[in-house]
Amino acid sequence: xxxxxxxxxxxxxxxxxxxxxxxxxxxxxxxxxxxxxxxxxxxxxxxxxxxxxxxxxxxxxxxxxxxxxxxxxxxxxxxxxxxxxxxxxxxxxxxxxxxxxxxxxxxxxxxxxxxxxxxxxxxxxxxxxxxxxxxxxxxxxxxxxxxxxxxxxxxxxxxxxxxxxxxxxxxxxxxxxxxxxxxxxxxxxxxxxxxxxxxxxxxxxxxxxxxxxxxxxxxxxxxxxxxxxxxxxxxxxxxxxxxxxxxxxxxxxxxxxxxxxxxxxxxxxxxxxxxxxxxxxxxxxxxxxxxxxxxxxxxxxxxxxxxxxxxxxxxxxxxxx
Length: 321
What we know:
- 49% of the residues are buried.
- The mean pLDDT is 83.
- The longest helix is centred in the N-terminal third of the chain and has 28 residues, at 66-93.
- By secondary structure, this protein is mostly helical.
- Helix content is 79%, strand content 0%.
């Protein structure tokens, strides 16, 4: 047990996670610390560009393999299936009606790209590697969960509460476009491209991520305080239990298809994370009567802080890192 705790604490004691914790602390003590909105937007774009480009470069270096398609298939399967599990748990653990339970469930099959970036940075800091195509896996796990959530609503709520979301509207989401586009550019330009922009996408990456996670800690803490009246004990418990269950299911699939430790860890993180960008945007269109205060506070105010501070080192330990 002491060895396990030492490993978990060692994975936790990295600058990125500690800066997120600092943001949470600043929010809870009502500090006036703030990151300008324009700077936060730039950091979001930078992180998506950098992680996408580096993933594409890694894929070009390693080549296309059957395991790539198996891993993408595993990611898509998880994204489709996890909302159904989340819906069942929500109906058993909370008093949410079917529509709101479905809206929340959709967030837990999709992904948080920020959590994925933080996990990738943790691997780099610890000297562990992962397959470059994990970025492609992340890109394919955005949309299936939304489709599952909408099917659940039509099946269990008895009526359609909003209009359908066009596929083009989902696939043209800015984070998906930039992530997939940077991935393609990194794969096409290979070593020559990396040499040209390495001073931009490699050297400052961890420092910018620290600032970004500081801002995310502030946002998560303030969201949690503002909407804490909406979070029952059952909802809070779901926001902690669901990511652990999802990570364990992903670990089983990762073991089945033979992923290395770093890639297995990233698949676990993708499954355990909850969207707070793409899915909320889709839910506002498709389910306008669902309560954003519930699903945003749960994904951003509970699950995101849990994953960043406790989940990442725990999942890495489970994966064997």
